[in-house]
Amino acid sequence: MNSLKSFLKRDGWMLFIFIGLLAFPFIVATLTGSSPTGVPRGDRMIMRGESVRWQAVLIEVFILSLLAMSYNLLFGFTGVVSFGHALFFGLSGYIFGILLEYTALDTGLATGLGIVLGIAASGLLGLGIGLATLRLKGVYFAIFTLALAEMAYIFFSRLQLTKAEDGFAIGELPVWLDPTQSRLTFYYITLAVFVVGFLLLRRLMASPTGAVFKAIRENEDRAQSIGFNTLRFKLLSLVIAGMMAGAAGILQVMLNKKVGPEMLGLTYTIDPLLMTIIGGTGTLLGPVIGAAGLHLLDVGLRDQVIALGGASIRIADVWGLILGAIFILVVMVFPYGIVGTYQRWRLKRQHRGDPASAATSRAARRQSG
Amino acid sequence: MNDSAPVLAIENIHTFIGQFHILEGASVAVQQGGITVLLGRNGAGKTTTLKSVMGITPPSQGSIHFRGEPLAGKPSNVIAQMGIGYVPEHRAIFRELTVKENLQIAERKRGDLARRGDLIFDLFPDLKRLYGLPGGNLSGGQQQMLAMARALVPENHLLLIDEPSEGLAPVIIEQLMRAITRLTDHASVLLVEQNFRVASRLANDYVIVDEGQSVASGLIANLVNDDALIQRYLGVA
Amino acid sequence: MLSKSLGGKRGSLVAILAIYIGLLLVAYLNSPNLGNFGITVLSGLFQGMLLFLVAAAMSIVFGLMDVLNLAQGAIFMIGAYVAYDAQHPGGVIDLTAVVPNNDVRFIVALALGFGAGALLGFILERVFLRPLYVRPIFQLVLTFGVSLILIELAQIVWGTTPNSWVEMFGVRENFFVLFGQRFSTYRLFVVGFGFVLIIVIGLLLKRTRLGIIIRAGVEDREMVQSLGINVKAVFTLVFTLGCAVAALGGAVAAPFLGAAPSLANTYLLTAIAAVVLGGMGSYYGTAIASLLVGLAVAVAQDATIGTSLGVLPSITPLLLLILVLLVRPSGLFGSSR
Ligand SMILES: Nc1ncnc2c1ncn2[C@@H]1O[C@H](COP(=O)(O)OP(=O)(O)O)[C@@H](O)[C@H]1O
Ligand SMILES: [Mg+2]
């Protein structure tokens, strides 16, 4: 009873949001008088109405959150900069798509196999990249991933088999999964994957392994000298991040029923980076808040037109610039992001009048060891 | 500035490195033309004291005055320009630069090296022969000489010298000691030296640093006879 | 002597020579005649020199300041746009009335490109990078972000469709005939100019006080500062010059490459390939590697013209980069890891 109480006190608000997300399709449906499952026509469903439209928006938020969380595991928690995160996202997407469209397998089997192989390939890719470059200074890893992602992008943009830069559509998914048929189910599936990912990450970061990740971020040499095989921990972080990004890529392909080289493009590297930084680097909730904030902003503003001294500017045309400006602004003046800044503010309030608490005196160090 | 005012007056400084409180109240004075030696165990905070003077790890409390001027808030290049030469531990010379370039880079005014060349080669005749070689090719003793010579290129009023004898052969140490003694014609010296024999022969004054605090100070002549103090803080008899 | 200034890596020198000879051999075997071979080589050297202009500063700045400037490609692109804009009628800066002579205007265009790069570099270091030296990981991320912003800005100011150079002027149109082929005088001029620049910058690093400070700073910044040198000011100066030279590269390239947003990432990645291949922080290594990458791209272009392998030239630098990182990440002439 007591543990339930403390759970509610600590995590109650998360539970509250989770329940809110569970009810979301129905709330929107009620408010707008639309159906949460779309409109039936014959034996198919048409995805029309406010509820299903907003479900799609949130599904994208979940996918982007997953991608950003995986980016944050590397960048925020382990201190490794990747400029090729789209690799994992796109690679698993292509593998999944190719299994569905280019093999004679039964749809259900291809879906299952695609999910397993896609995620496994992303993990292996992470392992390979890590083995090749994580021994080196951080910039080498950043460069290597950038170059590899660019290569993959060029490769798939030209590969005739997968319809080059147009990409290819997924004709058929199992009906219960297909977002153009059963969006509500798909909504709950992505929600579940997102929540599981979040909880796993939280568990991981609370574990000794997570503590080593953070130690590596703070000072890799010191972590090494304490006796940790930092390479192995960085590899682990990269493999987990790769698999998470891979899962996000597969969900994205399911949602759009399409695979194309844009999944390997810079956008899917920059977006998670941006979302992580804006939300709060190295915090659990930061990437989620960043992903939700940016994506909702994008959806809300995309078609807006603002008049600026006679000229009218479509927000969509300058969206990249706006993102860039936010990016620079956050890095320069707001480096802890939304969540990080909030946490520091709260910490400061708790420690007010106790300035020495942050420092470690010689006496204190003697005491502790 | 009267004659008795110290060249360097460090008063009760506290220095943090990151979140670690390294110096917890250190006070040191260096008299005009004198040599003050900082003694203390490994990790006591001697190097950090020198770095605090240089502004590399600026103190957050306390004061440092150099020739009557406060150093607080000044970046290390400005502090150096005021006339302080730093000879760090482990002989931090530039290994890829030649001996000549190692000396050239220390010039603050055009012609500094030409003006001080005679003095430098008089103190360290070996350097003349090694002039065109990369610093990395020099032996440990030669590197130490180069590091000290580098601090002599501009006109400095104070030299901060960190463990010059560390890891060197006795013959070389003798040579360095002679050089340091002669340096005092040109500058006052704050010396860190673990080798008590060397320290006691060179210095006028001593300050013992322990656990980040200055715990004892005075004339070195008095310390030499104070076995209890030596035993307690320096662990040598 | 050369081997010494390259860090005494005799093996690397031999390897580089072998690669050069191999590339030239491929080019030669691929060419129907000497003239064609000459064109490939000149084109390779030309591209190599452009790369050098981007890569040299990247390498020096990385060695000195530990900052890998990922905006360097975008600054190259800005240089190209500014030069294009200044040379052609219309656009943001219309100089056709002020400087009617095409040749003179081109010189002005180059100067403007250089100036734009310097200004961007100065602002980037002084305003954005300086507060972040304590958080190097964010510097890397920041230069990446600045690169994206510059690309976006260029698209807003100059549009998304590539501008191809139409304005004629003397040097660009001149050619000389050798082995029955027409060679562009302008390219030859750029290659010559590039060689002079390699040597001038090399001497600057070797002989001047700034050069000594830079080399010392690569080893130990803290010590340089303790000698009374304002290292921050040196950083700003070096970074500004580096960006100016990269933008000059873009301006010089514009008559051939035009101005397009895609230049930014292409030249960034290609230059990184040269920097890593040469060994980060090694100046002559970067120069040699830039020419090598340029030559490799030209050979690939020549070999794949009219074949279905049209991607090869654009992925050649990437392949080289990945290969070097896998096999020998310290590059051919680098020392530190
Ligand atoms: N960069 C650093 N981070 C954390 N602790 C440090 C750092 N540099 C020095 N210290 C600690 O500060 C203390 C004093 O160091 P130092 O001044 O070098 O001692 P000394 O020169 O007397 O041997 C030591 O305990 C050392 O471990
Ligand atoms: Mg010490």
First-residue to last-residue Cα separation of chain C: 24 Å
* Poorly predicted runs of 5 or more residues of chain B: none
Question: Globular, elongated, flat, extended or rod-shaped: what is the shape of chain C?
Answer: globular
Distinct helical segment count of chain C? 14
Q: Largest sheet of chain C, if any? A: 2 strands, antiparallel
Structural class of chain C: mainly alpha
- The beta-strand count of chain C equals 2
The end-to-end distance of chain B, rounded to whole angstroms, is 40 Å
β-sheet strand percentage of chain C = under 5%
Topology, number of strands of chain B: 10
Question: Could you give a short description of this structure?
Answer:
Chain A contains 14 helices and six strands. Chain A has helices spanning 2-32, 50-77, 86-102, 107-133, 138-158, 183-206, 208-218, 220-226, 230-256, 267-279, 286-301, 315-333, 337-350, 362-368; strands at residues 39-41, 44-46, 168-169, 258-259, 305-308, 311-314.
Please characterize this protein's 3D structure.
The complex is a heterotrimer of chains A (369), B (237) and C (337). Chain A is mainly α and 369 residues long. Chain A has helices spanning 2-32, 50-77, 86-102, 107-133, 138-158, 183-206, 208-218, 220-226, 230-256, 267-279, 286-301, 315-333, 337-350, 362-368; strands at residues 39-41, 44-46, 168-169, 258-259, 305-308, 311-314. The longest helix of chain A is centred in the first third of the chain and has 31 residues, at 2-32. In chain A, 43% of the residues are buried. Chain B has 237 residues and is an alpha/beta fold. Chain B has ten helices and ten strands. Chain B is globular and about 45 Å long. The mean pLDDT of chain B is 90. With 337 residues, chain C is mostly helical. Chain C has one domain (2-327): ABC transporter involved in vitamin B12 uptake, BtuC (Orthogonal Bundle). Chain C has helices at residues 2-5, 10-30, 34-65, 72-87, 102-129, 136-158, 170-173, 185-207, 209-219, 221-226, 231-257, 262-278, 283-304, 312-327, and strands spanning 175-178, 181-184. The longest helix of chain C is centred in the first third of the chain and has 32 residues, at 34-65. The mean pLDDT of chain C is 86. Chains in contact: A-B, A-C, B-C. Chain A binds chain C through residues 75, 79, 81, 83, 132-133, 135-140, 142-144, 146-148, 150-151, 154-155, 158, 266, 270, 273, 277, 317-318, 320-321, 323-325, 327-328, 331-332, 335, and chain C through 62, 68, 128, 131-132, 135, 137-138, 140-142, 144-146, 148-149, 151-153, 155-156, 265, 269, 272-273, 276, 280, 310-311, 314-315, 318-319, 321-322, 325-326, 329, 337. The complex binds adenosine-5'-diphosphate and magnesium ion. Adenosine-5'-diphosphate (ADP) binds at residues 17-18, 20, 22, 40, 42-48 of chain B.
